[in-house]
Design goal:
Radius of gyration: 17 Å
Number of strands: 4
Helix content: 40-55%
Number of domains: 2
Distance between the termini: 15 Å
Strand content: 5-15%
Largest sheet: 4 strands, parallel
CATH architecture of the largest domain: 3-Layer(aba) Sandwich
Order of helices and strands: EHEHEHEHHHHHHH
Strand order of the largest sheet: 2-1-3-4
Shape: globular
CATH topology of the largest domain: Dna Topoisomerase Vi A Subunit, Chain: A, domain 2
Length: about 200
């Protein structure tokens, strides 16, 4: 690694919040942010981002695996099509970024105001983490939080409530414990271990 300056490439604002938390934890600086258009855009940009990572700026790209049947290493290979440059940290959240968020079991249980036992001990193995989080939010003792996170009965096509991204971004920024989450999520731990090997805290 040549510098502590990174270009951050993510799918959405939740991935941005998580990535920012991770990079700042290791004292790394975000010089530019791109993406926020889903994984199709990131896939198109990944070969050029790999090339960019040969220069002064490193690149941290975070995307979702989306299905437990997929393989992170094969996904990376299919996107980039060539060996990764040393400055390109291409990471894959198993199965979705929500898996990493709920891996802080104690934090998310307190945030949602639900019992700890309702949050599983292996978040990477949940097939639909976003839907699972919504189902847990339905049990929240906080009425306002339920309205924000759970789609209204009249919203027949919505999978999440109107405040889903904003509230979980707040959780990640203010309450999410990175090391506690890494003790539950294997894919998050691998990401931290990889960065730690390059930038020891």
């Amino acid at each position: 690694m040549k510098s502590k300056f990174f270009i951050l490439a993510v799918e959405d604002i939740l991935s941005d919040a998580v990535s920012t938390k991770i990079l700042e934890y290791f004292g790394l600086e975000i010089a530019q942010r791109i993406g926020y258009k889903g994984n199709t855009y990131l896939r198109q940009k990944s070969p050029s981002l790999n090339h960019t990572a040969r220069g002064f700026y490193n690149v941290f790209l975070l995307t979702d695996l989306d299905s437990p049947q997929n393989c992170p290493s094969k996904l990376i290979q299919s996107w980039v099509g060539s060996p990764l440059n040393a400055g390109f940290l291409f990471r894959v959240a198993v199965v979705e970024i929500e898996s990493w968020i709920m891996a802080d079991r104690r934090g998310i249980a307190k945030f949602l105001s639900i019992s700890l036992h309702r949050i599983p001990q292996h978040s990477d193995k949940i097939e639909n983490p976003k839907e699972f989080l919504v189902s847990r939010a339905r049990r929240s003792r906080k009425t306002k939080l339920r309205r924000e996170l759970v789609p209204a009965p009249s919203a027949t096509t919505a999978k999440v409530g109107p405040g889903f991204n904003a509230r979980f971004t707040e959780f990640v920024r203010d309450y999410w414990d990175l090391e506690r989450a890494a003790s539950v999520s294997v894919s998050l731990k691998r990401t931290l271990d990889r960065i730690r090997s390059l930038y020891p805290v």
